[in-house]
Design goal:
heterodimer; A: alpha+beta; two-stranded antiparallel sheet; two-stranded antiparallel ribbon; 6 strands; 16% strand; globular; B: alpha+beta; seven-stranded mixed β-sheet; six-stranded mixed β-sheet; 30 helices; 17 strands; 41% helix; binds iron/sulfur cluster
């Protein structure tokens, strides 16, 4: 499955990825609307961490409306039509990588589109093909795929 | 019948009303739907600012609409009586856990006065998004009818019910087949229905449905209390059906989506972190309570005689959890991450019309396990599941059923009943077969089951008149107050809880107050004034949930990690941060700026709470004598009950200066009883005073004036009674 991975050794905290992501998906420069969030590591000055979806799929079992499914690349996607904006997935994401902008009723997340990878000046980001995550209970039951 | 062949069914439309669905603004559609099934009238009634301010929504709207529909002489089976369902302004919010409740209101066949019962499922929210803050059904149809609301098209219809199942297991599925045009639409339909047991007893419940997209079948939640299902069937309503496709995060029209998402996200995260290390509601649901109640001697056993039993562990959540399917917690409305709804998906029935079939069973909830399980001496989880299935399927309230059966079982064991009188049912504690047979009789409308179905109050009278049983003894052991059967907690050791039950407006249900721990275990409210304060604050605060379409569970079945460290116990019990969440939530939805402190929430409830008390008065109840409770809920009635906890009771006698040495159990029993009965009266005095009622339990004119519910008819009624 395709996953955006972050290399902390290379990141210099320029946040161009955040700008790129929000531009790509929301046509505005707004870190609140980026699916990747860069923050400084408190205990290691000059070092950064990234919060971004690792496509673990736990949210698939949380969603009451089956709005979260994996596409054929293993990427978890939000189906806007099915989503009731309950934000269960936002609260229950183990790494808090599902977001809701204040002016939008459907949450969003990283879909490993790779735009930020291209934009990152230090090469700290990459799209990797990782082994498939185990099937969630929903997937076992429904055999659902993204529409 | 599949969705695909439903077009072959031609529906006979008896009346149709077209409307333009208004956009829901700040939690309100600003109109209610009136349907009369006698003359097939359908009409919209406006909701004005005063109605919103005074009654808020949910139970408040139900009470106000019903107040205006009935007279003091109206009986539950008069066509004038109504069945009302309303959700409330927060109801239908998807981001905050527990925001999907509907509240049913009607005149109860069991109590003769006004009843409210809250229920999950999707009906209330979908009804609101269809443009209606409440539905009010009056009249009595001359044939079976379905009331159908299509919130996308803007149509309300009264339809002659076609040939459909008469039970609540099959019927809701058939209704989906009938009203969903595609399989995708099934998720947007919710029905209210009940079964044949509701028709043949006075304890009928309403089953409110929601579609489970993973399991691909309909699930049910019950408005159980007080026989509203019986009223429903009496009106010949087969079902209420609402269809609304397209629920979104902002369907409820919140004043501030940004504020709403903040409080919602925070609460979801708290549940994510705290629930697994607290009650694990997501994993266990309410059955987690069974072990706790058993350990603290609060689990009703053998008609509330005892509070624990060596075999109770057979009914612990661990026994039920094994049977839950899928391993994915379900909420009964979107966004409820506390997700206490459980489903046993493959269960083979041993008795009744579905005998031998594999069915799915929702639940069971704690109340059901305690009511039809331990209280009837049944410690077999399979029997509990089977009874649960048939109660829901027949449309019978599991609480009233459990408490009424337990009463019969005690009557049987004490010789008041025998095999002859029960038509062959050997109603000993623990006899699940006999209990199931009584339940099937309710479904069929025959045999002793229909006597049980009249409820404890009527059985007491009947057994005294017909079998010469001692009315005083029946009064002591018959666990009802105001005509409603007790819910399932032993209140003997907590006088505050006795008041919580006895003073509850609708009858003894724990949703007004659950004070046992703070009163009897942690001893936080020692004086009568303390108890009265608790019996002011908690019932008012909890009433607030039912005005807004909220569930109580996310309030205190999960707590912030530092709740108990941060606040002294008495304050921690209120879960201040969650109270604050509710203020934020209410403000974010309604945009009202005047609700800032917990006291403001309490004041909102106080209006409705007092109005309900006065409604009881209008119906010929609502005074002190109606707050009297059976002695079984206060203390040991029998010698063996006393002796089973002799050490505890002896000690208490010593504390009040009565030396138990060399006294017979009978003498000790009498001394304890005098003390406890007097204590209850003192409690009542303190609570009435705190609530602004006179010594007869009637709200004073100053109280109704302060609350702004001094409507001319309210004042006239009070004047008549206050003289
Ligand atoms: S916000 Fe949407 S995607 Fe997330 S859990 Fe709720 S319905 Fe599913
Ligand atoms: S891969 Fe695409 S969606 Fe993910 S963070 Fe980068 S730009 Fe955003």
């Amino acid at each position: 499955m395709k996953v955006l991975v972050f290399n902390p050794q290379l990141c210099d905290g320029c946040r161009i990825c955040e700008e790129t992501c929000s531009q790509t998906w929301f046509k505005e420069t707004n870190a609140e609307k980026s699916a990747i969030r860069i923050s400084p590591l408190e205990d290691q000055p000059g070092r950064y961490q990234a919060t971004v979806c690792n496509q673990c799929g736990e949210c698939i079992d949380i969603c009451p409306t089956l709005a979260l499914t994996r596409d054929r690349h293993g990427i978890v996607r939000v189906n806007k039509k099915r989503c009731t904006g309950c934000l269960s997935c936002v609260g229950f994401c183990p790494i808090l990588a599902m977001y809701i902008p204040p002016d939008y009723v459907v949450p969003f997340k990283c879909v490993a589109c790779g735009e930020c990878v291209k934009a990152c000046p230090t090469g700290a980001l990459a799209i990797e093909d990782l082994p498939k995550a185990p099937l969630t209970e929903t997937e076992k039951r429904m055999k659902v795929v993204a529409l | 019948m599949k969705a695909t062949d439903k077009k072959q069914v031609v529906l006979e439309i008896l009346a149709e009303y077209r409307y333009t669905p208004p956009k829901v603004e700040r939690g309100y559609a600003n109109q209610t739907l009136y349907v009369n099934v006698s003359d097939n009238t359908i009409a919209a009634k406006p909701v004005d600012e005063k109605m919103k301010h005074t009654f808020v929504g949910g139970r408040g709207f139900g009470l106000w609409l019903l107040w205006n529909a009935v007279r003091g002489t109206t009986k539950w089976n008069d066509p004038d009586n109504e069945v009302i369902l309303s959700s409330g302004p927060i109801g239908g919010t998807t981001v905050y856990p527990g925001s999907g409740k509907s509240i049913a209101v009607s005149l109860s066949p069991l109590t003769g006065t006004v009843m409210d019962s809250n229920v999950g499922g999707h009906f209330g929210p979908l009804l609101k998004f269809s443009g209606w803050d409440a539905i009010e059904v009056q009249g009595k149809a001359d044939r079976e009818v379905i009331v159908f609301v299509d919130g996308n098209k803007g149509v309300v219809q009264i339809i002659a019910a076609p040939e459909l199942a008469d039970d609540s297991y099959a019927l809701p599925e058939q209704l989906l087949d009938l009203f969903a045009e595609t399989d995708e639409e099934r998720i947007g339909i919710s029905s209210v229905s009940t079964g044949p047991g509701a028709q043949h007893t006075l304890m009928g419940c309403l089953n409110v449905s929601f579609y489970d997209p993973r399991r691909k079948f309909v699930r049910l939640k019950q408005a159980g209390r007080g026989g509203i299902g019986t009223v429903f069937r009496h009106k010949k309503i087969k079902a209420l059906v609402v269809k609304y496709i397209g629920v979104k995060g902002d369907s409820n029209g919140p004043a501030s989506w940004a504020e709403l998402t903040e409080v919602g996200k925070r609460m979801h995260r708290e549940i994510y972190e705290q629930d697994p290390i607290m009650n694990d509601m997501r994993g266990n649901g309410t059955p987690y309570l069974v072990s706790i109640m058993n350990e603290f001697d609060l689990l009703p056993v053998h008609n509330f005689r005892y509070g624990s039993h060596p075999e109770a562990s057979n009914l612990y959540h661990t026994e039920f959890r094994k049977h839950y399917s899928l391993g994915i917690p379900d909420g009964c409305w979107y966004g409820c991450t506390l997700a206490c709804s459980k489903c046993v998906e493959r269960f083979q029935l041993r008795t009744g019309p579905y005998k031998g079939q594999w069915v799915h069973v929702d639940g069971p909830e704690y109340e059901t396990i305690a009511g039809v399980g331990s209280n009837c001496g049944i410690f077999d989880p399979y029997a509990v599941l089977e009874i649960n299935f048939y109660c829901d399927t027949y449309g019978i309230d599991t609480i009233s059923f459990g408490t009424a059966m337990a009463f019969c079982m005690e009557c049987y064991e004490t010789g008041i009943l025998n095999k002859e009188r029960t038509n062959g049912l050997e109603l000993r504690f623990g006899n699940a077969e006999a209990m199931l047979e009584a339940l099937h009789q309710m479904g069929r409308g025959e045999g002793f089951g229909t006597v049980v179905g009249q409820g404890v109050r009527r059985m007491k009278q009947f057994f005294a008149e017909k079998y010469g049983a001692d009315p005083a003894f029946l009064q002591d052991i018959g666990m009802e107050c105001k005509g409603l059967e007790y819910s399932e907690y032993v209140s003997k050791e907590s006088v505050a809880q006795q008041g919580g039950y006895g003073l509850a407006n609708k009858g003894p249900q724990h949703d007004e107050a659950w004070l046992i721990f703070m009163d009897a275990v942690t001893k936080q409210i020692p004086t009568f004034e303390d108890k009265a304060e608790a019996l002011h604050y908690f019932p008012m605060f909890r009433t607030w949930f039912s005005l807004n379409g909220l569930c109580k569970l996310p309030w205190n079945d999960v707590e912030p990690a530092d709740n108990k460290r941060k606040y002294p116990p008495r304050i921690a019990a209120r879960v201040p941060e969650h109270v604050h969440n509710y203020i934020e939530l209410f403000t974010a939805v309604t945009g009202r700026e005047d609700i800032k402190e917990p006291e403001d929430l309490v004041l909102m409830s106080e209006r409705v709470y007092n109005f309900q008390r006065i409604f009881n008065l209008k119906m010929g109840f609502g005074t002190r004598e109606h707050d009297a409770i059976p002695y079984r809920s206060m203390g040991p009635v029998t010698i063996e009950e006393y002796e089973s906890r002799a050490e505890r009771y002896d000690q208490q006698l010593r504390e009040i200066g009565f030396d138990p040495e060399a006294k017979s159990t009978k003498e000790k029993l009498a001394a304890l009883r005098r003390h406890r009965e007097q204590r209850y009266e003192s409690l009542i005095d303190a609570v009435y005073k705190r609530r602004g009622w006179n010594s007869q339990g009637i709200p004073t004119l100053e109280t109704v004036k302060r609350l702004g519910i001094d409507y001319p008819d309210v004042v006239a009624l009070l004047k008549e009674h206050l003289q």
